[in-house]
Write a structure and sequence with these properties.
Layout: H1 2-39, H2 44-54
């Protein structure tokens, strides 16, 4: 019974670490997409400067 509890606690730590790594990867991908949409060729910053120059 004691060995079963120890093996469960070790496997749950591994799953938690994997979940943490996957979460970090997803956040990095979302940050990359956000930065690209803001500063890209057709990004928000370029559209804003084009619009403000027209006035």
């Amino acid at each position: 019974m004691q060995k079963l509890k120890e093996s469960k606690s070790q496997s749950s730590k591994g799953i938690t670490l994997i979940a943490l790594v996957i979460t970090i990867i997803v956040l990095l991908i979302l940050a990359g997409i956000t930065i690209a949409s803001i500063t890209g060729e057709n990004g928000i910053l370029r559209k804003g400067t084009k619009c403000s120059r027209k006035k």
